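Hi L.,

You mentioned the student needs an example of a multi-chain input paired with its predicted structure. This one should do, with 246 residues in total across all chains.
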Amino acid sequence: MKQILNIDNITMKFGSLIANEDVSFAIHENEIVSLIGPNGAGKTTLFNCITGFYKPYSGKVSYRDKDITGYAPYEICRIGITRTFQIVQTLKEMTVEENVMTGAFLHAKGRKEAQSIAEEIMEMTDLTKKRHVVGGSLTIVDKKRVEIARALATRPQILMLDECMAGLNQTEIKDVMNLCLRLKENGLSLLVVEHIMEAIMPISDNIVVLNAGRKIAEGIPSDIVNNDEVIKAYLGDKYHAKSQKS
Ligand SMILES: Nc1ncnc2c1ncn2[C@@H]1O[C@H](COP(=O)(O)OP(=O)(O)OP(=O)(O)O)[C@@H](O)[C@H]1O
Ligand SMILES: [Mg+2]
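Structure written out for the whole complex:
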């Protein structure tokens, strides 16, 4: 499989605080990569460095061999990399359909085309029945669906999800997992930040673990759950013991 996104030695500092230190990994075509690690490990900061919200202190981000470090967020989105936000940003006054259309307008030539993209994406994300509901009155899970749908409407090649399963119940988590797998089947690559290991482990092709800004491990899920440093820094014995039993 071909590499499509390369993160090379990214370092990001806030004053004297080093939020990302020399982080490198790659995302291939048609792959789900998860980024895990304790609170404050630097996951969202790395998302911001990749998507142009922060300019890294040093290091390089390349998309299909092109250096995109320091591109503006809209430029990153236009070339095919879209992210969701840890704190959902549903437009409260707009309906679900209009929210999704705001993403579609990135490439659509007019309202009609944006509407037809929105229809297709709402169907895929189980939002069609709620298309006329305004963003402000949606439940958490539907707000998260809208957040994902709006990102998908920009027609990304790489979708980056920042904790989109937090606060959801088991069935809703399963829905998002299935959606991730469907998107992969459709040819997308995903970079997923998540704390819910039961959701991450079954869907990930590769897992990158951050701790205190540094990458401490990378590998397939079965290696990650048995990695002593990852258990010590993040997973704890609880998840380890549980996965050993099953
Ligand atoms: N804009 C900022 N200014 C100053 N410090 C920041 C800023 N954003 C993040 N940090 C700090 O950088 C470190 C990494 O934070 P980040 O939000 O990237 O962690 P995270 O892995 O996403 O955590 P969580 O799992 O809680 O979302 C933390 O110490 C945080 O306080
Ligand atoms: Mg975060």
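You could point out the following to them. The mean pLDDT is 93. The two ends are 31 Å apart (CA to CA).

Best wishes,
N.
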